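User: Second chain of the day. Same drill as before.
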Amino acid sequence: MDAFDSIVGYEEEKDGLRRIADVLRNPGRYRELGVRPPRALLLHGKPGVGKTLMARCLIEASGRRAYVCRKDAPDGAFVEVIKLVFKEAVEHAPSIVFLDDLDKFANEDEGRRDAEEYVTVQSCIDELGDADVFVLATANGTRRFPHSLLRQGRLGNRIRVEVPTERDAREIIEHYLSSKHRVADADAEFLARLLDGNSCATLEEVVNEAGLLAGYRRSDVISEDDLVRATLSLVHSVRIPPCGASSSDEAADLPDGRRRQVAYHEAGHVVAGEALVPGSMVYATTLEGDGGSSGFTKFSRSWRSGTPDDFARAEAEVIRLLAGKTAVEHCLGAVDVGCSSDLDAAFRVVSALVTDDCAHGLDLHVDAWRKDSESLLSGVERAVAAEVERFQRKAVELVVRNEGLLDAVAGALLERQVVTMRDFEALARERPVVPIVLPTAPGFRKPETRC
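Assistant: Same format as last time:
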C-alpha cells in the first residue's frame, strides 16, 4: 500500500513528496549519480489543507524515525527543546526532524524576524553537517521567518499546499460521504462547487455537520439540503432555522419592504454574475451571515478564469458590484441603503484601473513622485466618478434586459431565503440570461492581433 493513499487528491504535491521519500529511502542510488540529497522541506499553506497529514505520510514512506518538535514549552525553555530534538535525531541517524507548526515557535512579525527560536532552528540545520538527518517543517505562512532561514540549503525547498481545486474537492467530498450512512441525492460535483475555495478540514466538517442536522430533524438520510444548510452555517456563520421552522421565519424580524430590497439586491448580483461569467454563481441567500449584514452571494473561483483578461475581469466585477443597487432602484423604485460595501469595492477597482493601469490615459497615473499633486488627484477623482457612472449605465442595461429573470430569482429568495446554482439553472431555463457587451475604456481601442 502506498503511504500517500490516505491523501485524497493533491496529485502534484504527492508526486513531489514521493520523490523526496525515494531519496530518503534509497540515498545510495542518488550518491552514485553524484547528486546531493535534499536536506529539508517546508510544507506551507492555509490551516486545514492537510500539511501535517502530508508530512506524516512522507515520514512513513521514508522508513525513517522522526523526532517531532512542537511549541509545548515556555519561550526560554523551548530553545533547549529544539536543540535536544536535533541532537537526538543526529544520534539516531538516518532520521527526520519534524518541526510541526514552525510559525508558532515564536510570536514575531514581519518587522522583526530574528526570534531566538528561529535563529536556533537555523543554527541547528547548519550544524547537521554530513549527518543523515532530514528536516521537515510545516507552517501556515512564511512571512515571520528570517529570510536567511528560507534560503537554499536550509528551508529553501518548499511546497505550497493550496485549498483543494474543484476536482480535488470532489474527490475529497466523495471520500467523506462514503463514510456516512444513508446519504440521499448528494452530487459530489455540486458539493465541490458549493464548497469551492475551502480547506479539506472545512469539507470534512460540513459533511459531518450535515449529518448532525439530518439527525436532529429525525431524518433517516442526509439530504443535499442538509449539506447546503451546513455550508451556510459553518462557512458563513448563517443562523440555521430551528428544526421544524421554515427558513422564512428567520427573516420575520425584517420589515417586508426591507426583505424585498435584500432579495432584489442579491438577485441583481446573481443575474449580473451569470450574464457576465456563466456558471460562476454558487448560491445566494437573504439570511444574515458574516459581519451581520443581511444577504450575500457567493461566486466560484471560475469567476476569475471566466473572463478573457484582467481588464475584462475588472470591468465585469464592477458591473456585478453595481448590479445589486441597480436592481433595487430599477425594480422597486427605492434607494438601496445597504450597498455601501459594494460601492466602496467598485470605486477601488475603478481607481486602480485609472491610476495603476492608465485605462483613462497616461496623464492620470499616480506614483510615488506625483501622489501629492492636487491637480492630479482632482483629475483622478473626476475620472473615477465618470467611469463608475459609465459602468452603472451598463448595469442598468443588464438589469433591464434580464428583468423577468431577476424577478424570478428575487421571488425564489423571498420564498425560501436560499437559491443555489441548481435553482438558478431551473429558473433560467424558462427565462434565459441575456448577456451584454462589456464596455472598453474611453479612447482605448484594442489592437488587431499581430501575426
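The first strand starts at residue 40 and ends at 44.

User: Great, on to the next one.
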